[in-house]
Amino acid sequence: MNGKEYVSSVLEKVKKTNPAEKEFLDAVIEVLNSLAPVFDKYPEFIKAGLLERIVEPERQILFRVPWVDDNGNVQVNRGFRVQFNSAIGPYKGGLRFHPSVNLSIIKFLGFEQIFKNSLTGLPIGGGKGGSDFDPKGKSDNEIMKFCQSFMAELYRHIGADTDVPAGDIGVGGREIGYLYGYYKKISSLSEGVLTGKGLTYGGSLARTEATGYGLVYFTEEMLNDNGDSFKDKTVVISGSGNVAIYATQKAQELGAKVVALCDSNGYIYDADGIKLDVVKDIKEVRRGRISEYINEVPTAEYHEGCRGIWTIKCDIALPCATQGEIDADSAKILVQNGVNVVAEGANMPSTLDAIEIFQANNVFFGPAKAANAGGVACSALEMSQNSMRLSWTFEEVDVKLKDIMQNIYHNSKNAAIEFGCDGNILVGSNIAGFMKVAEAMMAQGIV
Length: 447
Ligand code: NDP
Fold this sequence. Notes:
Layout: H1 3-17, H2 22-41, H3 44-47, H4 50-54, E1 59-68, E2 74-85, E3 91-97, H5 103-119, E4 125-131, H6 140-154, E5 163-166, H7 173-187, H8 207-225, E6 234-237, H9 242-253, E7 257-262, E8 266-269, H10 276-285, H11 293-296, E9 301-304, E10 316-318, H12 328-336, E11 341-343, H13 352-360, E12 364-366, H14 368-371, H15 374-388, H16 394-418, H17 425-443
Parallel strand pairs: 3-4, 3-5, 6-7, 6-10, 10-11, 11-12
Antiparallel strand pairs: 1-2, 2-4, 7-8, 8-9
Helix pairs in contact: 1-2, 2-5, 2-17, 5-17, 6-7, 8-9, 8-15, 8-16, 12-13, 15-16, 16-17
Residues 167-170, 211, 239-244, 262-265, 306, 320-322, 325, 345-347, 372, 375 line the site of NADPH dihydro-nicotinamide-adenine-dinucleotide phosphate.
């Protein structure tokens, strides 16, 4: 059996055994389609059933999360933790609290996380978790009650050397604080069991900024490698959460003009360049909506609906909101408007059709698992600091982060060249991420 036949046979099996899991299937298709040349070169991987094993999570935990709201009513949500692969280190990956969360979404995120974590060069396996709980409109007390109930079950399955969750959509510093406090109470352990912690109890400087900064470091390296840079470029960034805010900050520092941001209701367009202090005040301090921007900056525009953001003419597009936000139609418009670079801050924001359109039109494409690995890389640096009981300065962490992002770009580029796909960073990142995990799995026997 050659590499292509092997990949097709495993894909057929995955489709049959996970028929209703669209997001998971898309993620598996995207990775596996890159790997055929690897199996031609290393047929021993086929014999060892590597792919069949890697597409099956090592463990999936689903649990009830009951809590009482401020009106005294009992609420019930569903909790998830998928421990996907521990070949190169403890499971590591965020928790997402959003009403859209289901097993398919958590599995797609956990699967991607295996290769992303491997790309960082740090010893962390892949996992992901979360709940269909919607934090929007909840009081601090309700958020705390929910987090405590969630941790009352999750704590059995995690630990500093077992599984180390972090934040994701809907889980920021506040939620990590409540989760950590309850873990410590019921386990009596002060250990680095979560990352994204506050600075007073084991958090790392630069973790808040890491995914957004890392995305821009990666993109700048891709641009530099092609004789270009962020300077004087027009940039559209979707989202207005953690990743979008710090991507905007770093892109502006490098001389770009960021003209648009969005949330799940609509987008703002500011032709003069986004005033980030206004956005931070709305989103980080007041937890408000992006539409409030035009109250403070009346020269800007607000439009209902998110997809319209991709109709804005730009040189560089950085999708930083959520999965599937750039479909084929949006990709076509971006290309027609002359976009030169698309780099993914969110996980799987471009559909498979959209990616094809970018590649067919020679758009430089930075795939999520490479471009947004800065967050988890910095989380791994937080784990190191917790183990050593030391804290590095912002500059020390930032230098390491930049170095990691530049290495990810070059390792992905070189893997693409080695396997005959020069210039295809998507294929290169899949192969580079896969190789380390594959070698570790081969060394550890059939487990
Ligand atoms: P946040 O919760 O801080 O922000 C998410 C942003 O995206 C919000 O502005 C939100 O708007 C918007 N959004 C959510 N759903 C939609 C939607 N359906 N349509 C349009 N906008 C939407 O999350 P993060 O910034 O942390 O995460 C953003 C993305 O980056 C996710 O894909 C996440 O998995 C990925 N990522 C995050 C990392 C991290 O370190 N935080 C690390 C690596 C990847 P609203 O407020 O209306 O919900």
